[in-house]
Design brief:
The chain is mainly α and 145 residues long. Helix content is 70%, strand content 0%. The protein is built from four helices and no strands. Helix 2 runs antiparallel to helix 3. The protein is elongated, with a radius of gyration of 17 Å. The two termini are 19 Å apart.
Length: 145
């Protein structure tokens, strides 16, 4: 196998893992709201707005492998990460209640689950967006070499 083929296969695998992560996160989000009946708050909706298109954009970048997919996916992932970071800061009480966007409807600090005693839904979102950003940066650097 040639060196460029190995590089291409590894890049495809990185992008596939990104797509898999976005797909599992999307399905998890839908599971929480549609099956577990956890009503999403305003910040959850913003994170969904940035997450759901990633499933389609990353899948499109896989067939055929498109190095330009990072131009479209990375801004969405960063915006979702910022929303998730804000949600986590709000959830943990670092941001005061006076500037919460969830003044009506479902509270952004509603505690639905805590996996392992510390991993919440906003935490899962932050973790997912963080991994996606890291993988997209690795993917981009592989093509820059």
């Amino acid at each position: 196998m040639r060196g460029s083929d190995q590089k291409s296969n590894a890049s495809w695998a990185i992008l596939f893992f990104c797509w898999l992560l976005a797909t599992v996160s999307t399905l998890g989000s839908l599971f929480f709201s549609q099956v577990m009946d956890f009503a999403p708050c305003l910040l959850c909706w913003y994170q969904r707005i940035f997450l759901f298109p990633l499933v389609i954009i990353l899948a499109r970048g896989l067939f055929p492998l498109d190095k330009n997919v990072v131009k479209y996916a990375l801004p969405l992932a960063v915006a979702g990460w910022l929303a998730a970071l804000y949600h986590n800061l709000l959830y943990s009480g670092i941001i005061p209640e006076s500037i919460q966007p969830c003044s009506q409807g479902v509270s952004c600090t509603e505690k639905y689950i805590e996996l392992f005693g510390f991993l919440t839904i906003p935490g899962l979102s932050l973790l997912s967006f963080s991994l996606t950003i890291v993988l997209l940066i690795i993917f981009k650097r592989r093509f820059a070499e």
